Amino acid sequence: MAHIKQTERSRRRAGTSMRRALRREAPSTVGLLVDAEDFAAMRHYRTFTFEDHAVYLQQVEGLLRTLAAQGMHTTVALFDPEDYAEFCADSGLEPDERTSRSRFTAEIAAAGATVAYTGQPIDTLIPLLVSRAVRRATWEYATMLLAGLGDCADCGQDIGRAAFDRASHLLMRLLDTAGPGTHHLVCSTPTENEQLLAVLHTARDMDGPARLASSEGAEFATVLAVGVALETQGGVVLRTTAPDAPDRVHGWRLHRGALLPLTAGEVFSAYCTDADTGEPVSPESGVEYCAGFDIGADEPEAHH
């Protein structure tokens, strides 16, 4: 009998150990209320028991550290109270339930803005998360605009797809021509409702091609494609950093599916003017404002 009990205890311990091992391999997601306004909106729910946003952020940071210490991969997702209320209404869920918040967090982790936790302080994590959310919203809006353009009346080609292909071609030609160094690109495309911005970071060695994240490349090309399709007065600025050399800034304006180089004076004016007030901004030291260069991109075969 004693032997049977000992065997049963061993099995339970082994089962517990295996579950702990599996738990370490199961990813975790934490939904984060980044500002006091969103936090106040959630306080209307009885089951949301936090009372102070600063204390809440401290507790979230402590939880993230604990999960990381246990060897677990954790993703932080932006928790938006308005999106949460809509989600509950569409799904028939009671919003004043912890399980509903957990389900919503899982949903936004799969399709929303997230940042992997790697030990960042909460004050560093929040701007990263907000920036990721803005980028994703911009991408989704630009994608929606392109999808709604339909087919060309003359050739039957999907206008949005053709514009995206053209923008991708322009981007790759620009990166190929920019040469070695660390490159920071900004694309600005005005639309009827708002100004779309896309940012891309990439690096290129002396002999290899440019290295860039596929998601950032797609976001950048999508925003540029909106300018191509709508013929807006968009533009691209490229800042290149290389060892033992001053940073170089180049610029182009978008015109009928082509990127036309700006002069050095135009680049200086664009870079050293406050976009909101129009007031001049002091130029940075150690930065050269240069004319845009010819990226060698062929002209569009047809204009849609």
Structure description:
The chain is α+β, with helices and mostly antiparallel strands and 304 residues long. The chain has 2 domains: 1-120, no CATH class; 159-289, no CATH class. The chain is built from 9 helices and 9 strands. It has helices at residues 2-25, 36-42, 53-69, 81-91, 98-111, 122-147, 159-178, 214-230, 264-271; strands spanning 28-32, 74-78, 114-116, 181-190, 195-204, 235-241, 247-255, 258-261, 287-289. The strands form 2 sheets. Strands 4, 5, 6, 7, 8 and 9 form a 6-stranded mixed sheet that branches. Strands 1-2-3 form a 3-stranded mixed sheet, sandwiched between helices. Helix 6 packs across helix 7 (159-178) and helix 6 (122-147) packs across helix 8 (214-230). The longest helix is centred in the middle third of the chain and has 26 residues, at 122-147. The protein is globular. The model has no long low-confidence stretch (mean pLDDT 85).
